[in-house]
Amino acid sequence: MDLISKYLGCGNIYPTYTSGYSCCSLTTVKYSDITNLIIPFFETYSVLGKKQNDFSDWCYVAKLMKEGSHLTNEGLILIKTIKKGMNRERENN
After folding, report:
1. Is the predicted pLDDT of residue 91 greater than 90, yes or no?
2. Are 28 and 62 contained in the same domain?
3. Does the pLDDT of residue 8 top 80, yes or no?
């Protein structure tokens, strides 16, 4: 993860512990890093498997935010609905 952060030039690494597994996450909150670095990287080097659907949803939310949808009640509801359908929840639906 350190190498990914250095390669992209953004993000911070945080340890996480889930169900007895030691992991880490790369976190960035700077919108320009997401749209200018992370999304283009994964558009070039595709995410494989089921995670491609989550990536597509994540990109759509980034687009909604660029358009300012997150500043309206309707936009927030849409974003929360998309988020609810991602990751493990997608498998349950």
Report:
1. no
2. no
3. yes
- Burial call 19-40: b when 16+ CB within 10 Å, e when fewer: eeeeeeeeeeeeeeebeebbbe
Q: Bridge partners of 23?
A: 16
The total domain count for the chain is 2
Backbone φ and ψ of 16, nearest 5°: -135, 150
Of 19-23, 49-53, 54-58, where does the model show the most confidence? 54-58
Whole-angstrom distance, CA of residue 43 vs CA of residue 35: 11
Residues spanned by the domain of 59: 48-93
